[in-house]
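--- STAGE predict ---
source: upstream dedup step, 1 unique chain passed
mode: sequence only
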Amino acid sequence: LAGKTEFSSLKVHWKQRCLKRGRVSMTTILIEKNIMVPMRDGVKIATDIYRLEGVSPTPTLVVRTPYNKDQMLAHGDIFDILRAVQAGYTVVTQDVRGRYASEGTFNPHAQETADGLDAFAWAAAQPWSNGVLGTFGGSYLGGTQWLPARAQPPA
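--- STAGE serialize ---
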């Protein structure tokens, strides 16, 4: 599971039972692993997408991390990705440039403005996104939000 190409475009269906108004229904969460998103200089950033199957475009939450995006699902005490998806959001997680499954060289904070702007534009343009973006996370993840936000991106 450690290779950069092993999960390329892998789609996982996660079926979950939900109790709604006294009825049990099945929710399918699609998980797309290691989609390689190109940045303006051609470097590709590893991206995971979590979304409900068969729904209209949704608001999208984006998080970019140097700490391994694959660990984010396991650490639901910080942010519960699956709960956000069940609430009607698409969640996009990325390993920043040069970290884990992403290409390039990691140079802390130096690339976060341009890469963040590219990631936000990419996410907002996807057919599963309604163009409304939010971000989440603290520590370095906060920097990946604030640095591109200075440029006032449209999404």
